[in-house]
């Protein structure tokens, strides 16, 4: 009997030079390429998925401080999945074995159901769909309340962008960020919002017009400029190759960015996490951006990933 891969069953889809591999564990986007050249930082087929690479996040993205929150007058405790910082991180579905709902040459749809539990007493179905076309990848995540009571829900995605070659220090990020959330350096919990053009004081982020990431350490949430579309463009400064992520900023007005400073791993600064989210860090405690889904109600987000590799001479 052959051993299953750590990330479960592998689903490969392709269209017009694009190819994606999605795993059944976590419904994660394991790889995405155009003509064989990476658009994200992939992980190996026999590798346990590192650092939430390519995962849909539900029913909350980012952190819940102490794993404790209050919803409609009742306090709940969920497991601390980031015990070294005392937080519950990135929801309840990242390690589920998701079920295949629909597959095809250019698309795959997977789903899982969150069962009611002490810390989250709601039945919520989460579906993720990946669709390739000549324009790139469209990734959709949907949560539906299957229970009989109102459920708090936040959604996000966790792709690590990679414009073909190089590493974080070789890339430039353009992002219409208005504010950046300062966090406690030990627990990465929110403290205060600042202008992205003036924080941190020693080397402000200021990504609106594009800024090189050389030597920059980022693990922060940004709010977008009002009225601006959700778009992040990551460019290789040497080659000009770029990967662009777009999303609906009215649904995901915040985006977490992380330079993947994972010391001692093979993924140290090899990708830039760009995570559009419906609520900011510790949202289950602040209430900001958290959807309250009535029975039967859905919340859905979608993003697109494209590249300019075919336009670059010799790429």
TrEMBL record:
| Pfam short name (any one) | Aldose_epim
Taxonomy, superkingdom: Bacteria
What InterPro entries does this protein's entry cite? Answer: Aldose_1/G6P_1-epimerase, Gal_mutarotase_sf_dom, GH-type_carb-bd, YihR-like
The Swiss-Prot or TrEMBL record annotates one GO molecular function as: aldose 1-epimerase activity
Q: Name one GO biological process term.
A: glucose metabolic process
The name on file for this protein is: Aldose 1-epimerase
Q: What is the lineage of its organism?
A: Bacteria, Bacillati, Actinomycetota, Actinomycetes, Mycobacteriales
């Amino acid at each position: 009997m052959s051993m299953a891969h750590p990330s479960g069953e592998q689903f490969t889809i392709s269209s017009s030079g694009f190819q994606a591999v999605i795993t059944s564990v976590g419904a994660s986007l394991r790889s995405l390429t155009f003509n064989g050249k990476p658009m994200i930082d992939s992980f190996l087929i026999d590798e346990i998925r590192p650092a939430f690479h390519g995962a849909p996040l539900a029913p909350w993205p980012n952190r819940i401080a102490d794993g404790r929150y209050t919803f409609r007058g009742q306090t709940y405790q969920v497991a601390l999945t980031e015990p070294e910082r005392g937080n519950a991180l990135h929801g309840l579905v990242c390690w589920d074995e998701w079920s295949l709902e629909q597959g095809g040459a250019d698309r795959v749809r997977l789903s899982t159901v969150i069962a009611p539990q002490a810390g989250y007493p709601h039945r919520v179905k989460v579906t993720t769909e990946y669709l390739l076309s000549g324009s790139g990848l469209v990734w959709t995540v949907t949560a539906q309340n299957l229970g009989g009571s109102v459920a708090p829900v936040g959604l996000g995605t966790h792709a690590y962008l990679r414009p073909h070659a190089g590493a974080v220090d070789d890339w430039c990020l353009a992002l219409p960020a208005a504010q950046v959330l300062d966090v406690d350096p030990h627990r990465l919990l929110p403290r205060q919002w600042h202008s992205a053009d003036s924080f941190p004081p020693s080397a402000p982020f200021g990504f609106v017009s594009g800024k090189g990431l050389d030597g920059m350490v980022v693990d922060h949430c940004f709010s977008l400029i009002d009225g601006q579309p959700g778009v992040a463009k990551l460019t290789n400064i040497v080659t000009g190759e770029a990967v662009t992520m777009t999303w609906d900023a009215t649904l995901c007005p915040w985006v977490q960015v992380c330079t993947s400073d994972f010391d001692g791993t093979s993924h140290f600064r090899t990708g830039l996490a760009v995570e559009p989210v419906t609520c900011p860090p510790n949202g289950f405690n602040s209430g900001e951006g958290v959807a309250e889904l009535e029975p039967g109600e859905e919340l859905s987000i979608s993003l697109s990933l494209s590249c300019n590799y075919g336009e670059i001479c010799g790429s």
